[in-house]
């Protein structure tokens, strides 16, 4: 059995799904830390959407087609900060279907509920008031020309850009895109191979065979928690237990093993207390920390401080804790020999088509074929019920965590409450395709996964890293 890393255990990844020896290699990555080589095309992500006639698009805005659709390309910035950057420069409030990591080159669809416009200042000539004889009006009774500045939204269909991203106009939709329109993500990733590993192709093919057989667990990946600083689920746990000051302190002062020196020093400083002076030492890239500190200094109210953060970030905390419980549940199931590929009587299941597109949910009662069904694991939430064989494992984990389902209805911050739900237990390969392409110094792999699944989970099975952060995870 392969030994998992300390980081893996911290986020609930307690096992591997495959017995294949890991490839000697690393994901070629770029980031804002010491691993950066200045290029982001080594890890590329592109959203796959399927509106299937449910939506109409037009190049011209009319009474029906009112919602502009864009393709957002970004590098070195996460989706939340990319949207903030675009809003700051162009006044555009955009909605994304999913959140993408900063450490990649990503293409994703975004929509807006307003017309594409760049706010400009327009100089407009107007007639002046009657002159007093000596002014610029031109003498008694004359009418001169003055200058007035007015705001105007000018519709533009060209590419907009900021430091980290660009926005390309596609057309106008007859409705906003919805999360159900997103099928998944297509990945193109470079893996650097150690020259001493002469069997890497066989190892990769062996893992992909297991994925196609639906025997690899559909874990939440490192990005959900943070590989540099795995803290989101710890903040979420504190919120769930109503320890709001602990949630603030954890987010501000928890130090990741591989954080840069500047960030580490800031967190050490904040452990000594929050002050106006400390704000001056918080760098630009720690904007969320700055918002928390400013709010805590003003009110000392941790709930108010947490609400200074974007709603997507606040929800991410509790959802990350939910994901941690899922990972632990799936780890136990695999370790104890549960079949995660085929439904058993009483299981909640998802239907999947020949391309592994995930469809409706149902309960397997033996009245229909198991073909086209995959087992689902319950996601804990305030509506959680221990259904099926996996539900009993979730209960075991919740007991160890000393929580119950009602804890996920957070009366003090209702907007971050989570109801629960279900998630496919096996990792599914969208369209059942996995390409291996040659590349200088390594290989490039290309594949697609359903929305919510992580490429790093598949690559973790391929490489089986002893220190994930140091090899690009």
Automatic annotation (TrEMBL):
For this UniProt record, the keywords arranged alphabetically read as follows: Isomerase, tRNA processing
GO molecular function term, any single one: pseudouridine synthase activity
Top-level taxon: Archaea
Q: Where are stretches of biased composition, namely Gly residues?
A: 136-145
Query: For the TRUD domain, which residue ranges apply?
Result: 215-428
Q: Which Pfam families match?
A: TruD
Question: Which GO biological process entries does UniProt record here?
Answer: pseudouridine synthesis; tRNA processing
Question: What family does the entry list?
Answer: Belongs to the pseudouridine synthase TruD family.
Q: Quote the protein name from its UniProt record.
A: TRUD domain-containing protein
Q: Where is the composition biased (Basic and acidic residues)?
A: 124-133
Origin species, per record, is Candidatus Nitrosocaldus cavascurensis
């Amino acid at each position: 059995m392969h030994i998992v890393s300390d980081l893996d255990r911290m986020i609930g990844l307690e096992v591997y799904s495959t017995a294949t020896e890991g490839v000697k290699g690393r994901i070629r990555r770029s980031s804002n830390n010491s691993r950066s080589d200045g290029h982001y095309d080594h890890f590329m992500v592109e959203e796959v959407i399927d509106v299937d006639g449910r939506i109409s698009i037009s190049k011209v805005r009319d009474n029906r087609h009112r919602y502009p659709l864009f393709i957002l390309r970004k590098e070195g910035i996460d989706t939340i900060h990319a949207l903030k950057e675009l809003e700051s420069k162009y006044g555009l409030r955009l909605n994304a279907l999913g959140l993408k990591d900063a450490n990649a080159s990503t293409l994703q669809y975004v929509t807006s509920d307003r017309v594409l416009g760049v706010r400009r200042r327009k100089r407009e000539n107007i007639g002046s008031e009657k002159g007093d004889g000596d002014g610029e009006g031109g003498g008694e009774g004359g009418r001169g020309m003055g200058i007035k500045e007015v705001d105007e939204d000018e519709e533009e269909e060209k590419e907009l850009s900021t430091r980290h991203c660009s926005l390309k106009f596609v057309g106008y939709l007859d409705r906003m895109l919805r999360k159900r329109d997103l099928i998944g993500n297509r990945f193109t990733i470079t893996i650097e191979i150690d020259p001493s590993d002469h069997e890497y192709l066989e190892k990769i093919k062996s893992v992909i065979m297991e994925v196609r057989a639906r025997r690899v667990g559909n874990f939440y990946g490192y990005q959900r928690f943070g590989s540099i600083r795995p803290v989101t689920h710890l903040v979420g746990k504190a919120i769930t237990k109503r320890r709001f000051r602990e949630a603030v302190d954890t987010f501000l002062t928890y130090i990741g093993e591989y954080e840069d020196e500047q960030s580490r020093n800031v967190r050490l400083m904040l452990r000594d207390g929050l002050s106006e002076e400390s704000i001056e030492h918080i760098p630009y890239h720690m904007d969320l920390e700055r918002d928390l500190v400013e709010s805590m200094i003003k009110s000392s109210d941790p709930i108010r401080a947490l609400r200074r953060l974007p709603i997507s970030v606040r929800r991410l905390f509790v959802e990350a804790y939910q994901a941690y419980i899922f990972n632990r549940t799936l780890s136990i199931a695999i370790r104890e020999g549960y079949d995660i590929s085929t439904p058993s009587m009483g299981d909640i299941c998802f239907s999947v088509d020949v391309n592994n597109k995930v469809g409706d949910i149902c309960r397997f009662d033996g009245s229909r074929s198991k073909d086209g069904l995959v087992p689902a694991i319950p996601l804990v939430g305030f509506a959680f019920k221990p259904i099926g064989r996996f539900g009993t494992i979730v209960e075991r984990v919740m007991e160890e965590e000393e929580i119950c389902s009602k804890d996920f209805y957070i009366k003090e911050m209702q907007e971050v409450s989570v109801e629960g739900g279900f998630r496919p237990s096996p990792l599914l390969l969208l369209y059942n395709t996995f390409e291996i392409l040659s590349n200088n110094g390594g290989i490039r792999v290309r594949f697609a996964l359903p929305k919510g699944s992580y490429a790093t989970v598949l690559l973790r099975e391929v490489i089986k890293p002893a220190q994930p952060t140091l090899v690009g995870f």
